[in-house]
Amino acid sequence: MLDLPLAPRATAALTDVRGSFGDRAALAGIDVSIAAGAVTVITGPNGAGKSTLLEVLGGTRPVSSGIRTVRGAVAFVPQRAAIPDGLPVSVRDVVRVGAWGRFGLWRRADATAREFIERSMDRLEIRSLAREPFSSLSGGQQQRALLAQGLARDADLLLLDEPTTGLDASSALRIRAVLREESARGVAVVCVSHDPAVIGDAEHTIPLVDGRVRAEV
Ligand SMILES: Nc1ncnc2c1ncn2[C@@H]1O[C@H](COP(=O)(O)OP(=O)(O)OP(=O)(O)O)[C@@H](O)[C@H]1O
Ligand SMILES: [Mg+2]
Question: I want to staple 55 with a disulfide (CB 3.0 to 4.6 A). Which of 31, 46, 61, 131 is the partner?
Fold first, then answer.
């Protein structure tokens, strides 16, 4: 596999990446480098290709051409809307999924993994909800559980699609605080967001328009 060297302090990079849906180009030649220890926000109008770019970074969407390089483990925090209503799992189950890589799908979590799962819930202030069905939670609580799942993965690259959109103020504040904590400990955090507060927290911005990174003016 072709692997380009990453710049120092970079966790991921895309080089001339193109992707399309049918004959429509969703990404049209993207070059980006994602810094470790920083929050990067992907901005742009509806349909600009923001979610597509995030999925390409996460490796969950194939590209037509170009090169993707990632150092370390990736956690992708899905949008709440992507989780089916009535899924019969508890909040702790949802968070535990993030740690599967540590103990395997069919084995019990060892004490260290269990501790990490509980700590992830503590950080999002949802431990008291651990036994509740995920589907009974409010939108803000669900998004916090999904971020806790991402933390449980202990990734180097943490990807989130509109993590604060439509949430109550306290959930949004907690999520932003955790994202800053993760970047402070060296994680490369990338979110798609329209939220001025999230954009204000970010060290880097990738402004997308029509599948291209808009030149800074
Ligand atoms: N499953 C799909 N099938 C066909 N076209 C799609 C699909 N998903 C996205 N697209 C198209 O690809 C382009 C980029 O979509 P994408 O979802 O990445 O945009 P976005 O910037 O995240 O938009 P939004 O702000 O609405 O979330 C758009 O033109 C969109 O219509
Ligand atoms: Mg989107």
Answer: 61
